[in-house]
Write a structure and sequence with these properties.
560 residues, disordered N terminus, 12 strands, mainly alpha
Length: 560
């Protein structure tokens, strides 16, 4: 993929001009430029390369983890507008809500430019039809993925296929229409994309098939739909096809999978391609989620972020994913901090490092300094070179299990038991039961994909099955819980082996006859956070309502 990105600047110039009068970030096509640009296969490939990298920035840099992880109750963060996603108090004026919406429509606009503007001039210039169809397959596959994300966050959204649409023409389409639109895009992609990516990191036949499995699983989860059973069957069939491809295997080292060395590995079915070519081209999470500058030897904004206590409680003893997902007292990492880093709640001076309310910090996607990752942490604040997964093989494995469970509560399907066991075996665990329940599957998905910004979609599927169950699942997390550091103890005592979550009592000094209390204790003065059904659908950004007031009309079926 490195060679592909050498041409991205040119592609960005071609596709990146926009006006404040346009709908969202939709850009007008310039037919004269197109006719002189698509001269050969290299030019076509260069333009489709633009769909994999910086075009995703507005979605991935902030909104992706705020919505995917905070809403799911996996990531604690309470600061300002970012914290609205944790408390679920966001309004339509939230800056990051607007950034996520615009970011996904930006991806769609790039796809539309290729779908509408590439084939004719490419044919006129003698480009082979196979190349043209492959490019269309990439664009339609990625457009389908972007629309899947949009509809799961916002439900009824506009289907835009023509970038030259004016704001007063924009209407929302029903979620059922959007599902069908996605299905058609992915089916087209499946029929024209090669089984093996023609360049590392590109969409393939199995990207489309894997997404079709997830799409049909999501459609099937609407249990009141007459086609629910058939969609479960299709989800199972598509997932099984991916599973039986012997060239697709789980990556052996879970922790290394989030370092640049594992980019485009055999488990990666679709990932945002990240490079160290400057702001906007790389992965910002090394900075935005890391604890402090001792880890990155540079910028760091993650001191107040950490895995929720509920997420921490979900990991079993001996699960190697735990240390690869978050850091807690006493954890040592050879590949952080420029050659080694040991996590302590407090530094000896009690100021260089301090605890947060979760007594833990994020590890996943945090790759440290350049010395820790082959020079791939980047030169700017936010351009690390480790890709961001949107679909990996383990996800398809567990989608198969969920499809086997269907509308029931468990499955004993042999292949489901096998792939479920493979996911757990990599984590250092096993599975000896003869069936898998729905609740066990959801718990397994939570820890496997923790802090990868996809667990909210599991909750959405659960809400389609049973809204009350989904709300109970969220509210029983007690996400209001957070720890207070007891000033009666020294830094050494706060860094004792038992000084981390679940390793000590929760006694407040006020409740302790001696007046001292625990090293850390739960703050009893934090109001409870209660999630309601309406909060599972994000509000359309205020900026969009101003520019396109027609979007307020009732959603309509899309005319295919």
């Amino acid at each position: 993929m490195k060679n592909i990105f050498k041409t991205l600047l040119l592609s960005s110039v071609l596709l990146g001009t926009t006006s404040c009068e346009d709908f969202l970030t939709i850009v007008p096509e310039d037919e004269i430029v197109l006719e002189t640009y698509y001269l050969d296969e290299n030019a076509v490939n260069a333009n489709t390369a633009s769909l994999y990298g910086a075009v995703w920035q507005d979605f991935s840099i902030n909104f992706m983890w705020m919505a995917g992880d905070e809403l799911a109750g996996d990531l604690f963060y309470t600061y300002d507008q970012e914290g609205h996603f944790y408390y679920m108090t966001f309004q339509n004026g939230n800056t990051f809500l607007n950034q996520g919406w615009n970011g996904l429509f930006r991806v769609i606009s790039y796809c539309n430019n290729i779908i509408n503007g590439m084939p004719e001039p490419a044919r006129e210039n003698g480009v082979d039809e196979t190349v043209i169809n492959r490019a269309l397959g990439e664009a339609r596959c990625i457009r389908g993925i972007a629309y899947f994300l949009l509809t799961e966050y916002w439900q009824d959204v506009p289907i835009i296929t023509n970038n030259n649409i004016s704001g007063d023409e924009v209407v929302r389409n029903t979620q059922a229409s959007i599902y069908e639109f996605i299905r058609r895009d992915l089916e087209f992609a499946k029929n024209v994309l090669p089984e093996t990516p023609f360049q590392a990191g590109r969409c393939s036949y199995y990207t489309a098939v894997g997404m079709l499995a997830k799409l049909h699983l999501t459609m099937a989860s609407h249990l009141d739909d007459a086609n629910s059973a058939e969609n479960f069957r299709l989800a199972k069939s598509y997932a099984e096809e991916v599973i039986k491809n012997e060239n697709l295997i789980l990556y052996d080292n879970f922790s290394d999978m989030f370092y640049p060395l594992a980019n485009n590995n055999s488990e990666s079915l679709f990932a945002i391609q990240c490079t160290t070519d400057g702001y906007g081209y790389g992965n910002s999470r090394n900075v935005s989620l890391s604890r402090n500058a001792l880890i990155t030897l540079g910028s760091s904004w993650g001191s107040g972020k950490g895995p929720t206590l509920s997420l921490q409680e979900s990991f079993e003893t001996g699960d190697v994913r735990r240390k690869a997902t978050y850091m807690r007292q006493g954890d040592h990492y050879d590949n952080l901090g420029g050659g080694g880093y040991t996590y302590n709640n407090f530094s000896e001076d009690e100021t260089t490092e301090v605890s947060n309310e979760m007594l833990a910090h994020v590890r996943k996607y945090v790759i440290g300094a350049n010395e820790d990752c082959g020079g791939m942490s980047g030169a700017t604040n936010q351009d690390a070179g480790n890709n961001i997964y949107l679909l990996r093989l383990a996800d398809v494995y567990l989608c198969y299990v969920e499809a086997c469970i269907g509308s029931g509560s468990s499955t004993n399907d042999p292949l489901a038991l096998n792939v479920f066991g493979l996911v757990r075996n990599r984590a250092g665990l096993n599975w000896t039961k003869s069936e898998i329940t729905y609740d066990e599957l959801i718990k397994e998905r939570r820890v496997e994909f923790a802090l990868e910004s996809i667990n909210f979609f599991d909750i959405k599927r659960m809400s389609y099955r049973d809204m009350n169950k989904a709300l109970d699942y969220l509210n029983q997390m007690d996400r209001h819980r957070q720890y207070v550091s007891n000033g009666s103890y020294t830094a050494s005592e706060k860094n004792a082996s038992n000084a981390y979550h679940q390793g000590f009592t929760q006694l407040s000094p006020a409740d302790d006859p001696t007046g001292k209390g625990s090293i850390f204790y739960i703050n009893q003065d934090i109001p409870r956070i209660t999630i309601t059904a309406s909060q599972l659908v994000l509000p359309i950004p205020a900026e969009t309502l101003t520019k396109t007031p027609s979007i307020l009309a009732e959603p309509v079926e899309y005319q295919f």
